[in-house]
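Methods, example record. To illustrate the input and output format used throughout this study, we show the complete record for Retinoic acid receptor gamma. The sequence lines were provided to the predictor; the line carrying structure tokens was produced by it.
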Amino acid sequence: MEKHEEKSKENSPINADHSPYSLEPQNGSYVGSHSAYEHYLFAQKSGYMLPNNQQLKSPMFDTQGMYEMQSPATMSDPSMSPSPPPPPRIYKPCVVCSDKSSGYHYGVSSCEGCKGFFRRSVQKNMQYTCHKDKNCVINKVTRNRCQYCRLQKCFATGMSKEGMEERGELIH
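The corresponding predicted structure is encoded as:
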């Protein structure tokens, strides 16, 4: 039974004779195949002490403020608190269909749907026809019903293909 205990002791990570966590300094620093954090955890669990009976401590592993984010300014001056995040960008609604705008595209505030529709229509030089009186209501719900009126509204609200040529988006 003593042999079995010796074998299990040999395989134990806490056994200092066969530990993969060498805490012997090499060239003034602690090195090994494991991370510094693993060394720290091992030393903390096993009660290893450093030379001069000091416990293994490092500001890198100080868990007291580990979830606080600090900027370089607050690191140097603890009395300064971090500035609040900037407010989210708010765009006007899409000028074509009144859906939520994703930014300014082709000169106007537009949604992703109208931006893509305008780009494809202009790139392919599409010619659409209206099946009613060329005065269809274009909004978020009805924008896909009449391509002719949607494209006319894109141009009427100020969407321009001028920037497309500069970016190489136009196919001639």
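Annotations derived from this record:
The helical segments are 2-11, 36-46, 72-76, 112-123, 147-156, 162-167.
Residues 2-59 form one domain.
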